[in-house]
Design a protein that fits this description.
By secondary structure, the protein is an alpha/beta fold. It is built from six helices and seven strands, in the order H-H-E-E-H-E-E-H-E-H-H-E-E.
């Protein structure tokens, strides 16, 4: 592997943030605790599970593109109702963690329905109960926006990823289209207070604050969806 500056994509220039300095930032609000977020998602777990087929129509192609090559022993962080599981076709072992018991119950149903061998654990992404270098691939989708301390969580994901392994993220992000970005900014505070989700989150900026080496980024759907491939330093 050629040396590169940690947190800098190898094949894509950094996005400029000069036009975003005055936007409302969710992380300036009182951070929700992990238990508050667990309660929030526990309340909507059944509803999210009911909408799983519709969600696949929207996000399935992005999940497949980002995760279909996740190989070896795979950790799915904040796995929710298990929407990534069906795309982990090259994994030899799947481990899912989430902070919500209600989400994990639906994730178990998903594993059983796919006849996929995997294990699930209730766990905080900011304090993973796994030894260092435990997984070949670590994945997470639409989740860094909910971590109370995303830098700590990402460093935990880095810790449990083997040297030479990969970390794959699929995140929602602030749109490059001004009207959509304005709508996200306008809704950011109320959405965060009710769902613990930073609607106008900039996932690439968050990953760049860690020691992870960003290998590739991919933005789609007017910049609303960002894929990030990274490796441990």
């Amino acid at each position: 592997m050629n040396p590169s500056t940690p947190g800098t994509p190898r094949d894509q220039p950094n996005r400029t943030t000069s036009d975003r300095t005055d936007r409302p930032q969710s992380d300036q609000l009182r951070p929700m605790s992990a238990e508050e977020i667990a309660d929030s998602y526990g309340d909507v777990a059944d509803e999210l599970a009911r909408w799983s087929r519709l969600e696949r129509l929207f996000a399935g192609r992005y999940r497949r593109r980002q995760f279909e090559n996740a190989a070896g022993r795979v950790l799915d962080v904040a796995c929710g109702t298990g929407r990534n599981f069906r795309y982990l076709t090259t994994a030899t072992d799947v481990v899912g963690i989430d902070i919500s018991d209600e989400m994990l119950a639906h994730a178990r149903d998903e594993l059983d329905g796919l006849a996929l061998d995997g294990t699930l654990h209730r766990m905080d992404a900011q304090a993973l109960a796994f030894p260092a270098d435990s997984f070949d691939t670590v994945i997470s989708s639409f989740a860094t926006c909910t971590f109370p301390d995303p830098i700590t969580a990402l460093r935990e994901l880095q810790r449990v990823c083997k040297p030479g392994g990969q970390l794959l993220f699929l995140e929602h992000s602030r749109s490059d289209v001004a009207p959509l970005a304005w709508l996200q900014d306008w809704r950011a505070e109320s959405h965060y207070q009710t769902a613990g989700c930073q609607l106008n989150h900039e996932p690439l900026e968050t990953v760049q604050k860690t020691e992870l080496v960003i290998e590739k980024t991919d933005e789609q759907l007017f910049g609303l969806v960002t894929g990030i491939e990274a490796t441990p330093p």
